Prior knowledge:
The protein has one helix at residues 124-130; strands at residues 9-13, 38-39, 44-46, 62-70, 77-85, 99-105, 137-142, 151-153, 166-171, 180-188, 191-193, 203-204, 212-221, 232-235, 250-254, 269-275, 280-285, 293-297, 303-304, 310-312, 317-327, 330-342. By secondary structure, it is an all-beta fold. It has two domains: 9-254, Sandwich (Immunoglobulin-like), CATH 2.60.40.1190; 262-342, Immunoglobulin-like, CATH 2.60.40.10. It is elongated, with a radius of gyration of 24 Å.
Amino acid sequence: xxxxxxxxxxxxxxxxxxxxxxxxxxxxxxxxxxxxxxxxxxxxxxxxxxxxxxxxxxxxxxxxxxxxxxxxxxxxxxxxxxxxxxxxxxxxxxxxxxxxxxxxxxxxxxxxxxxxxxxxxxxxxxxxxxxxxxxxxxxxxxxxxxxxxxxxxxxxxxxxxxxxxxxxxxxxxxxxxxxxxxxxxxxxxxxxxxxxxxxxxxxxxxxxxxxxxxxxxxxxxxxxxxxxxxxxxxxxxxxxxxxxxxxxxxxxxxxxxxxxxxxxxxxxxxxxxxxxxxxxxxxxxxxxxxxxxxxxxxxxxxxxxxxxxxxxxxxxxxxxxxxxxxxxxxxxxxxxxxxxxxx
Length: 343
């Protein structure tokens, strides 16, 4: 899977105090380094009419830049899409619209997820309700959406494009048929399972540092309001069929928080009650910075100097656990009050 792609792109991690506001403004993205930007030069042109046009990039006709971000603890992918087009086509109420088509496979399970791969074998209506956009999601995002919802999900689970699972804003100052620049800012929730029955059985893709997710996108450029074909179909994937087969997506890595956002030394930890019968608790140090020593106070009179200790509590109760660390940059403390509970 993904064997045709030797590229890997990066997803920028926003600090929790710098989460982008979905307002169509780009200032929240100023903290994202330039090497996270993916331009039209990284995309491939497929010419549906085989006209031979666009063999070279013409930024006066179309220019596209995309940046992708995430926030640790939120299963959301944030996108900033900037596009210049010499002819914006968005006056009609149907799918004839300049479109940013996004496909996401949160767990990289791969495989087909759209009916056309099974034409003649599967009833299209049955497919719509059974597997379209279930394990990977395809969003047709109208750029801009005039008199219509911001996106069409290629499946029966239209609920995934609405709050609390998605949000989007477009900013532009042109009319249909005019040139200009558009800014699309949005976030979506990727799902390992997103069924037509709604959120009750849905499984969000869990986003964690260093994990890779499958993503690709396409820019569908109409330049003739009366025509039926595209002026251009630009995709990030090398495969045109990325829009219906998740095996053709491109790996994107969820990057850790950059050093400039980290404290020189900061005590953090997590824990798991791994055996309630024995009151066995496993603690994991998640501190940042260079740490030379650890001092754990388990709240029951016992302590440890290990980095990742295992502790057995003698009796049931609520315990305040304190971790103190020390390193070249100084000292730090983290306490979790009554969070450790054993019975």
